[in-house]
Amino acid sequence: MVESPRVLSVQSHVVSGYVGNKSAVFPMQLLGFEVDAINSVQFSNHTGYKKVKGQILTEKDLSDLLEGLSENQLDHYTHLLTGYIGSVSFLNKISSVVKQLRDRNPNLIYVCDPVMGDNGKLYVPKELIPVYKNFILPLATIITPNLFEMELLTDTKITNEDDVWNAIDILHKKGCETVVISSAELAEESNLCIFASCRKDTMVNKLSMKIKKLPLSFTGTGDLFASLFLSWMYKSKGNLKEALENTIASLQAVLKRTVDSIEGKEINPRNVELKLIQSKRDIEEPSIIYRASIID
């Protein structure tokens, strides 16, 4: 048997609901990945509810966990996935984690979802921004920001498609091989836009997609997107178009099922939790509706 790819996923965890590792681990497992999860925080529920209780992992806790894995020779991974991280010291530690894992496997693929905010609002300390820009970006193989996070990472204002490609080029120059803007609402567009670019040596592959906006806001979609994209980039052997189309197909199916489940119900955080488990078949066998356009 061929050994399964192994992912170390470092992001938030909730007891109830689907964000962070609760949104990311299940899809990767369905798609054939062994997944080890480290929870940067453990909360009762996501922060959209009226109250949140829980614990925050420290950089010392992270070091202890990695030390235990290393001493038992359990730190050989094909992929590292990082999502929500709430402190500068913890994010700084991620840099050394990447280097440690690459010592064990020089071909490690690091997928970074730089969870910092959305719609113009930060929900992490602003001190994390320079850490991402100066230390994390040069280590990342794939990065999946939303539009607001892209502006923070590149110090640019993005209002049109030309701005998008200019910002993506900045991240390529920082060392990121593949850049995907997972969601963008541009002024001249009525649709939700997705942009992806892969640069290897002198070869650049650029894609865009437009999808219909849904009438609700969801939590955990970025975490789901990053995990699906990681999985399909591996399964497609780096085929950017196939990976993006399969990712969006599964994501849209989950969101549509979630919207359908709310019909006749109150719109509240509990009812808008992603219908992830019910979408098992859509994750394993995505039905492609939206196609990506190749940008010359």
From TrEMBL:
InterPro entries: PM/HMP-P_kinase-1, PyrdxlKinase, Ribokinase-like. GO terms for molecular function: ATP binding; pyridoxal kinase activity. Keywords: ATP-binding, Kinase, Nucleotide-binding, Transferase. The keyword Phosphoprotein does not apply. Its EC number is 2.7.1.35. CDD domains: pyridoxal_pyridoxamine_kinase. It catalyses: pyridoxine + ATP = pyridoxine 5'-phosphate + ADP + H(+); pyridoxamine + ATP = pyridoxamine 5'-phosphate + ADP + H(+); pyridoxal + ATP = pyridoxal 5'-phosphate + ADP + H(+). Pathway: Cofactor metabolism; pyridoxal 5'-phosphate salvage; pyridoxal 5'-phosphate from pyridoxal: step 1/1; Cofactor metabolism; pyridoxal 5'-phosphate salvage; pyridoxine 5'-phosphate from pyridoxine: step 1/1; Cofactor metabolism; pyridoxal 5'-phosphate salvage; pyridoxamine 5'-phosphate from pyridoxamine: step 1/1. GO terms for biological process: pyridoxal 5'-phosphate salvage. GO terms for cellular component: cytosol. Residues 91-260 form the Pyridoxamine kinase/Phosphomethylpyrimidine kinase domain. Belongs to the pyridoxine kinase family. PANTHER family: PYRIDOXAL KINASE (PTHR10534:SF2). This is Pyridoxal kinase. It comes from Anoplophora glabripennis (Asian longhorn beetle).
